[in-house]
Amino acid sequence: xxxxxxxxxxxxxxxxxGEGSTWHGxxxxxxxxxxxxDDEIELGRVKLYRKMVFIASRQTYCTQSVGMFRFGLPEIxxxxxxxxxxxxxxxxxxIAESIGGRKVVVEGVLPVGYFSxxxxxxxxxxxxxxxxCDLIYTYYQLRGLECPRIVQWVFADNEGRFPWNxxxxxxxxxxxxxxxxxxx
Length: 184
Description:
This protein is of the alpha+beta class and 184 residues long. Helices cover 27% and strands 20% of the residues. Strands 1-2-3-6-5-4 form a six-stranded mixed β-sheet. The longest helix is centred in the middle third of the chain and has 15 residues, at 85-99. The protein is globular and about 45 Å long. The protein starts with 22 loop residues before the first helix and ends in an 11-residue tail after the last helix.
């Protein structure tokens, strides 16, 4: 599995693409995005959706999965990654592990092979994710599904410090929202 390279990830200058997302309008119009998500899920895949968000007045990306529930896994949300290809590879690996009956690690310290930086996952409560996981909630609501379980993945800086560490690199912390109630 290919690892995400640090220069393509956190702390790198992010190329801003477009003015923002239009998925809400598409969802409300019941056009292609809802059908795309259904198609991906029917094919046994997960839909990744990346949108631009602001964190502390800085633009960054928020990526959210829709469809992990089909494999008994939580939906994933993460910030600061400007490409979905490696995230998609990691999720495909998790799905294969789940289908194969193996233990899947999505919380706590994530396996080193997933990304080239240390990553940590923790479950987040719905009230902490409302501003960022709107596609997940809208899809679940439109499909009559129960409230989703969501895990956030966060990335450490080059020294292995996570965003809740006061000494963490601001270039890393400024592009990741922490959706947890208590930071430890």
